[in-house]
Structure formats: C-alpha cells, structure tokens
Amino acid sequence: MESTQSNSVRSHFILVHGLCHGAWCWYKVVAALEAAGHRVTAIDLAASGTHPARVDEVHSFEEYSRPLLDVVAAAPAGDGERLILVGHSHGGLSLALAMERFPGKIAAAVFAAAAMPSVGKHMGVTTEEFMRRTSSKGLLMDCEMLPINNNEGAGVAIIMGPDFLARKYYQQSPPEDLALAKMLVRPGNQFMKDPVMKDTSLLTDDNYGSVKKIYVVAKADGSSTEEMQRWMVMLSPGTEVEEIAGADHAIMSSRPTELCDALVKIANSLNTC
Predict the structure, then answer these.
(1) Are 153 and 234 in contact, with CB atoms under 8 Å apart?
(2) Cα separation of 131 and 161, whole Å?
(3) Cα separation, 270 vs 273, whole angstroms
(4) Taking the chain, what is the end-to-end CA distance rounded to the nearest angstrom?
C-alpha cells in the first residue's frame, strides 16, 4: 500500500488498545501503516500488555491513561507532523481524556469499534450502557470478575474468558490471533467508580468537542454491536463514520487491511484541508 500524503506534513498514528489487551494487538496495523510511510506508536496503558504494574496497583483512570497522556504531551507542536489518535474499545475513553487535555495537538481522533463519550454526559455512560446491554443477554459468557483493592477501595477487574474471546470478540479473526489473545490478555479495570468517569462537565465543546472525530463501525461486532456503536455516534453529532463489513470486535485482527485503508484515507483527507 502506498501513501499519497503530502511530503510537507507527516502523520503520526498513536494506537490505543482496549480493555485487557495491549499494544501487541495492533501488530498487523502497525506494519501496514509503516509500510504506507506513516509514523506509528502503539502504547501499553498502565497494567496492560508489557507494562509492569499489576491491575490493583493502578489507582485511577488518569493513572491508567498516563502512558497515552505522556506521549501526546511530549509530541512537539508545529513541526509538520499531525497526530492521529486511534482508540479501540475501552481505549476510546483514554482518547477522550487526551483530547480534552491537548486539543491543539490532535488533528483527528479515530474510534475503532470504541467507547466514544459525548459532551454533556459523564464518560462512564458508554460503559454503563454496554454492561446493561450485555449483562441482560448473557453476552459476557465465561468472563470472570476479579476482586481488587486500590485507592478507590474494593472493586473488580474483568478477566476475559476464552469462550467470550472466541465467540464475541475474535469470531471473524484468524485462529492465530485468537490464540495470541488467549495467551496475552490481562485483567482489566473499567474504573466505573473513578471520579473522572462520573464528571458530567469533564468533556467540553471547546476542547474535546473541537477535535475532528471519526467512528469506524465494525459491522460484525458480537460484543459492542453495530447498534451500540451507532448509538454512540448519534450522541456526538458531526462525527464522521467509516464502515468495515465483516469486522468483529477485534477489528485490527479480522480486517487489518481495511482498517489501515480507512486510516490512510483519514490522514490523506487531513492533508487536503
């Protein structure tokens, strides 16, 4: 795949994984974007992937998102490089926090089958709605809840079960990617009790609302269904939409070429503005 972006402006994609996953889940997309001539950084959020912390050692959503916030904060401004944040699943909430903090540094934010909050509502509303829809239908299957204690007090982390991964997350993905996920997923905390998740005034029109948003709908998603994804888009008018047919929730595993094509298209559209 060849990039047609302008030589004067380079795109830097920052890829943010979802709950229980890590930077490893982006390996196909990283290779494809780099082959297309783009700079790519895939990060591990705290207690995820190869990050050394345990899930009970991360005491807030801010701390969990710190690896992303630090990368965006350190990005030089005005050097001819455009930052494009790409978040998957629960990683969309970390994207939102970075967008609110550093709106002037981010050219666009791409929510790939991701939790996308809206101005005027608390960030946890997306997770609450997802849990309401999945719990009532038994879609969490063999996922387990792990009791943890941190500065929030007693809570739980989610451990994704192998049947859930196979039937609701990676059902359209190659078996090798499912096997990789079963080996590498870690317990994940949704931080539902965190004050950041409950603050209805956190996300503002001037900051979060000012960043260009694109939602990539995974049309064969068995976890966060297409209906759920379009509900989030409806809450944020002006969000552009890309659709990928046959993409399960692990969109970067089931349809990596199509996702990369969409991301390159987004980068090229920024360069024509």
Answers:
(1) no
(2) 16
(3) 5
(4) 22
Task: Return the minimum-mean-pLDDT range out of 16-20, 86-90, 108-112, 192-196.
Answer: 192-196
Using only C-alpha atoms, what is the Rg of the chain?
A: 17
Q: Residue 120's CB: how many other CB atoms inside 10 A? A: 12
Residue 200, both tokens: 């209805």
Predicted local distance difference test score (pLDDT) of residue 106 = 96
pLDDT of residue 6: 41
According to DSSP, the β-strands at 144-150 and 153-159 are antiparallel
User: What integer is the mean pLDDT of 171-181?
Assistant: 98
C-alpha atoms less than 13 angstroms from C-alpha of 240 in its C-beta half-sphere: 13
Tokens of 265: 């298209």
pTM tops 0.85, yes or no: yes
At 108-142, the pLDDT tens digits run 999 999 999 999 999 999 988 888 877 666 778 99
Contact 100, 119 (CB under 8 A): no
Closest CA to 109 of 229, 266, 271, 273: 266
Cα-based angle 152, 55, 64 (whole degrees, multiple of 5): 75
Judged by phi (left if over 0) then psi (alpha if -120 to 50, else beta), residue 94 lies in alpha
- 147: buried, middle or exposed (CB in 10 Å: 19+, 13-18, 0-12)? exposed
Q: Which structure tokens are listed for 157?
A: 């982390």
Task: Give the span between the Cα atoms of 183 and 178, in whole angstroms.
Answer: 9
Cα separation, 80 vs 250, whole angstroms: 32
Decide if 109 contacts 213 (C-beta within 8 A).
Answer: yes
- Class of domain 10-271 as given by CATH: alpha beta
Catalytic residues: 89, 221, 249
